[in-house]
Amino acid sequence: MDGNTKTYYVIDASFVLSFLLSEGASEVNDIFRQHAASEIVFISPTLLKYEVGNGLRSKALRKKIVKERADELYDRFLKLKIEEQELDYHEVLRVALSKNLSFYDASYLTLAKNLSAKLLTLDRVLERINSHRRG
């Protein structure tokens, strides 16, 4: 992170996909508007681009969107300027095992904890575990 006074948010694939697929509530859209206005900064583990790509692939295979739309949405995602952060993968594994989470979800949780940042997720299980981390 660059040391400025902007607020950082760790963002996961569920939150990004909700925005890209226009499935999001007004809260999701409001947060993305703040990001577009450079009021907040999104940061994620390096796996985000793979999870978002896989989510779009799944939607296309289930015929929820056409393949060309998946490609357009992925291009839109890549232009969002989400900072990537490497993690200590042994720490992520310990969190995954201790919280009974997928390695993927544990990476978002670990990053949010390490940065003392809010985690933006629509995954109910991950949000519940994250709220216990903050509370």
What does this structure look like?
By secondary structure, the chain is an alpha/beta fold. It has a single domain, classed as 5'-nuclease (Rossmann fold). It has helices spanning 13-20, 26-36, 48-61, 67-78, 89-99, 103-115, 124-134, and strands at residues 7-11, 40-45, 83-85, 118-120. A four-stranded parallel beta sheet has the order 3-2-1-4, with helices on both faces. Helix 1 (13-20) crosses helix 3 and helix 5 (89-99) crosses helix 6 (103-115). It is globular, with a radius of gyration of 15 Å.
- The level 1 CATH classification is Alpha Beta
Number of separate domains: 1
| Major sheet strand order | 3-2-1-4
Shape: globular
Question: Which fold name is given in CATH as the topology?
Answer: Rossmann fold
Shape-level CATH architecture: 3-Layer(aba) Sandwich
Per DSSP, what share of the residues sits in E-state strands of 2 or more residues?
5-15%
Number of strands: 4
Note poorly predicted spans. Answer: none
Q: What class would the helix/strand composition place it in?
A: alpha/beta
**Biggest sheet features:** 4 strands, parallel
Q: Give the CATH H-level superfamily.
A: 5'-nuclease
Please estimate the helix content: 55-70%
Radius of gyration, in Å, reads 15 Å
Order of helices and strands: EHHEHHEHHEH
Quick structural summary:
The protein has 135 residues and is α/β, with parallel strands linked by helices. It has seven helices and four strands, in the order βααβααβααβα.
